[in-house]
Amino acid sequence: MYDRLKGFRDFYPEKMAARRQVVDTLEDAAARYGFREISTPALERTQMYVDKSGEEIVEELYAFEDKGGRGVSLTPELTPTVARMVVAKQQELSKPIKWYSTRPFWRFEQVQQGRFREFYQTNVDIFGSSAPEADAEVLAFAADALTDLGLTGEDFEFRVSHRDILGGLLETFDADVDTRAAIRAVDKRAKVEETEYLGLLSDAGLSYEQAEEFDDLVATGDLDEIAAFGGDDVEAAVENLRNVLAAAEDFGAREFCEVSLTTARGLDYYTGVVFECFDSTGEISRSVFGGGRYDDLIESFGGQPTPAVGVAPGLAPLSLLCQRAGVWPDEALATDYYVLTVGDTREVASRIARDLRAAGNVVEVDVSDRSFGAQMGYADGINAETVVIVGEQDLANGEVTVKDMGSGEQTTAPVDSFPGDRASPTYDDLV
Amino acid sequence: MYDRLKGFRDFYPEKMAARRQVVDTLEDAAARYGFREISTPALERTQMYVDKSGEEIVEELYAFEDKGGRGVSLTPELTPTVARMVVAKQQELSKPIKWYSTRPFWRFEQVQQGRFREFYQTNVDIFGSSAPEADAEVLAFAADALTDLGLTGEDFEFRVSHRDILGGLLETFDADVDTRAAIRAVDKRAKVEETEYLGLLSDAGLSYEQAEEFDDLVATGDLDEIAAFGGDDVEAAVENLRNVLAAAEDFGAREFCEVSLTTARGLDYYTGVVFECFDSTGEISRSVFGGGRYDDLIESFGGQPTPAVGVAPGLAPLSLLCQRAGVWPDEALATDYYVLTVGDTREVASRIARDLRAAGNVVEVDVSDRSFGAQMGYADGINAETVVIVGEQDLANGEVTVKDMGSGEQTTAPVDSFPGDRASPTYDDLV
Fold this sequence. Notes:
2 copies of one chain form a homodimer. The first copy, chain A, is of the alpha+beta class.
């Protein structure tokens, strides 16, 4: 017997039915905004990640040499791949480019609740617009997806921040501060002790007093005070953040947003607005998913300067939130009909099954040469709503029996006109 | 600029729209038969393939050692994984187990037309039934999927064979023949010269005369003659093949099947009925996809004896067939509405867009702060059927303009009742 790899998961039908419903909900929401599905490779050159992703990601790569001697890696995230794709066709693609896709990614990391080595994300991105409406549309998609799943403003909140506010403030304190390191410190703020956090800020070049003052300022989230304190860059960033929130108001997503400048996002390539979705009840303490602007990435891939903004809900943390809120879909099979054969009735039963399938129903028949009782038990196990019993005796009378599996009631129907013109006839239609 | 790996593909939205339509068609057909979706890991232990798959597959593995020192491989096919999954839950799973899934697989092989290193398959399998109805249901699913794609009996045929007929005949000639090697030779029959083929049979243990006589017999496909020539095993296998074809008749798939004993399938684990789908016109000379029984695999994975039968259409060869037959879906974007803003009308335009999306429409709005002309050009580029123009002037009159992008005709509608109760109002609904 072979075992599954740690951090990898098999999804059997019941669980998969719920996951499929959630993914369909996310993708339908994206599609209604005019995001278009793309499909991308599972392997890329390792060098791309070494150059473009943060150190943390490179350490977690499933990297190896292929039989052609290439250094390749299982993709740990989508963003570098879509950046590559945008650059490859930058002349042909009309802007804004709006793409989505759902697929697995792989990182060799510690397995814990809601975190696996193989994990699924729905990535949604806009390339080619620096306007605040683009940031707001990404927020609006995310809000629609979550409310379509049955979540409400009581369940989740988007903590919205701005990299240029953080970066600008840091430079106001000290022009020589290591902005990246300091922002990475902010990203860790909620996860570490205060002294460690202030220590990280001071490693990045702030004095202890500056670090405290910086933290007080971002913790208040008072945009007026921050704009007044910082230079022109900070003022422009504050205005951009306000414009994004105003567009989010028109787009129906403002009610889910709160300004939270201590939200920073770990990845180095973010610029401008960034945000993270949190469980409003705090029961799930980690960020559910996040997104933001990455205006410099395409250019760093050798493309023309192309602003970009995106979000990537992960299915595992999202399922924790949905379960906490009681909106995770039922993990159950659904079957419209089981067409049961008794005796030598396969020909007629098959004709009925084919007619019902042609109308779009999920229909199972006996493929195991089983007894009446065994077929009934199986029909019950797959949650068949209706069982159509095709017995030799009934057929001699020109009839079939139609049984409602919920109530147990049954009636007969003329075999020649079953299902007839009805797409999905049930017991109730026949009595 | 980074390049894509050879044999791996990026699918941009237009191409992906067509692929999605084809995959949905395959999966919908499977779902209507009561096959249930599962999801499986991209990585498995390399040892599983070394033990269970043919040599050819092992040579083509993307195999490496993970950071935990495990020998792992990108999955080159689904069958060993689902066998592992069946064994892992064999007590809980009620039979028949009917699963489907669509996902990429990876093999390091020569890239050619319709063959890539990353390729997509929809796997459809039944576990736990040895009855001919199970084989026939797999054939019927495949036939439904292809006809749902718009293909007809003029376009494709299933060449149906039986491993035990081939094996039994070989043993009738010579009890010591290497059956596996001889069957692999049969699989190569159409691809190599006759002398090479007969040579392979003689390598497997037949004399040259026996090889010729064996080949004459299987080439005729005369089941009566073959049953008479072979022993009891051959007779039983002939009867099984006939029973499968009779069930396929009831299930609506017989018309697409022809007996072709020279069809053998390359993989070692097949037993019983095997089949391959071919282009009836011969324009595509290679098999489009194949399937068959593999009754011994689950037991060889340490499970209880569990018969199994399945099929796995690959998207790349299937797209060649659909293109040849002229039924490959349009590679084009589809958009219901573009809501165009002129001046400071974002609030109203957003309300209209949200109402239209809530009714399920695909709706884009300006996210790039663009001019009227640029927005119109973009709306045209995404094939918007209707453009709703929300202009300051019109709004002052309480109106919006609704433009049919096909005809170019336009009219106005009261803004307060647009879209109103109508899910998808068009120009024609308004005049």
